[in-house]
User: Fold this.
Amino acid sequence: MDLRLEDNPALHAAVQRGAPVVPLYIWSPKDEGEWAPGGASKYWLHQSLAALTASLESRGATLVIRTAPSAIDALTDVINETGADAVYWNRRYEPAIVKRDTAIKSELTKHGIAVESFNSALMFEPWEIKNKQGSPFQVFTPFWKTCLNMPTVSTPLPAPKQITPLTKPVKSQSLASLELEPRIDWAKGIRETWTPGEAGAHDQLTRFFDTIAAYPEDRDRPDCIGTSRLSPHLHFGEIGPRQIWHAARQHGALATTPGVARGEEKFLTEVGWREFAHHLLFHFPHTAGKPLRQNFEKFPWLRNKSHLRAWQKGLTGYPIVDAGMRELWHTGWMHNRVRMIVASFFTKDLLIPWQEGAKWFWDTLVDADLASNTLGWQWTAGCGADAAPYFRIFNPTSQGIKFDPNGDYVRTWVSELSRLDAKWIHDPSNAPEDVLRAADVVLGKTYPKPIVDHGEARVRALEAFAAIKS
Assistant:
């Protein structure tokens, strides 16, 4: 989905054709199979569609909204009502959507409708990047080197100044009728944190450029705003990777601040990881639910509901883990370093299947992207492409000390520990009793004791890994 006007090749092609244009959004979650948008994504989608509607209206067009069990049904109805003879869209790469769009293209072509799809979501098509054997990559570094040796990333297309509407109105459902917003308003924190829409995406990019020189160092620090926070805007197509690529290059070329060029290169490498995620999901579509490494099919996972609930609620007794899970619940987002920490704790300390963690992220993240979510969870669990070795098990206490050294991130999200000194804030279970009393912390009452012992959990995880290797 591309909820923007700038660098939207499908919209550009439709406008350039010279005929009236009917911008159409179809809400058909059943087409997406088990990966229909979760609660946080639906909230964001509502706000983004509202912003897109206003942008289209400023250029003379009206967004038509339809809902149907299948997108082809709604699309056929609109074609019959308007007499349209051409349909344009921008490609998506999730397995269920590839299957859906292939069927739509075949069906419409049989009925004489001109159909064309475009690449808008990626810098490079998944099938364009191959290793020397002509196969898809499974390791990031050679993948990204190949990308960098490709022809220059194409220049973003401008937004149309005017869109010619159909002379007669086309009936449309209201945005509210899609019921994307929660009936019980839990989205206050998301509203306070984000500005969905194309304008919000560009504002976020501009803010990030003000700090990009420090990005290589600050990107791993959840206690400061050191990352771009563009992931939800990218997921909903409010800004595209080509725009980011060229904007970063231009900013780096014009900047006089030392370190900007280095920050820009590091940032674009992270955008490359997003490309890699889509490359993997396209070529290995089964990985959304199954491990890429087949030996992990036999991994002896545990299913402990109380541990799962404690992790979801941020009540594990490990402050950096709990801070991340509470940030996620409140804002719909979590710092990337903390995502790795909480996922490692989930899969290796608790030994709960990575798929369960992926599902929770899918429902609670505003940037819930199937490709990136799958890559992240399989990387951490050790069962995917370019994965962290299974014996790499993050110590949540030492990770907190390293990346949140003053405890500011934990204090922000775990208020019951806010008075603890930095020396103990990542390890309250080992703090002296007088230190805990002075900070009004009563373990097991005001803040939980650790639900597992990390040292014992590490041994258990290594034994489980050894079992599937033998």
Q: What stands out?
A: Residues 72 and 191 are 33 Å apart (CA to CA). The domain at 122-156+202-283 is CATH 1.25.40.80 (Serine Threonine Protein Phosphatase 5, Tetratricopeptide repeat).
